[in-house]
Amino acid sequence: MLATILAFFSFIYRGKMSKNERSFIMVKPDGVRRGLIADIIKRFEQKGFTMVAGKITQPSTELVQQHYIDLKDKKFYKGLCEFITKGPVFPMVWEGLGIVKTGRQILGETDPAKSLPGSIRGDYCIHIGRNICHGSDSVESAEKEIKLWFKDEELVDWKPAGYDYIYE
To answer: Would you say 9 is a known binding-site residue?
Structure first.
């Protein structure tokens, strides 16, 4: 909580977003089984973002239910949780200036039919129930999701060689 408050005031003081903003992005079982992990990673890397964590894992029902707890009253909640636990997923943590907002744009609309060509969902998806990825919808959600899926020691702080060619 304190970190969120400090980050907010740092944003206001400097008048710009932090280069260290993080977002949680997950390739769902349909994306993993279709062999799209590398294509999805490539989109984020080409934009200039830095992956600071990633792993292939078979999530438990409890983990998935907790992840999607905000949707528990929706009629699709049970089916969504069952689908996410059907196969391996590839959760990742990405870092960079405006990653949450831009990450959602890279992914496209939740409903692939509303996604623009050039977005991941616009290029690879047809049906809303098989939309390949999940992306945090806010910095606050990202922080919760990252803590849910990754231990602190799994997050790597590093600076890519091209960093100075992406940021001033």
So the answer is: no
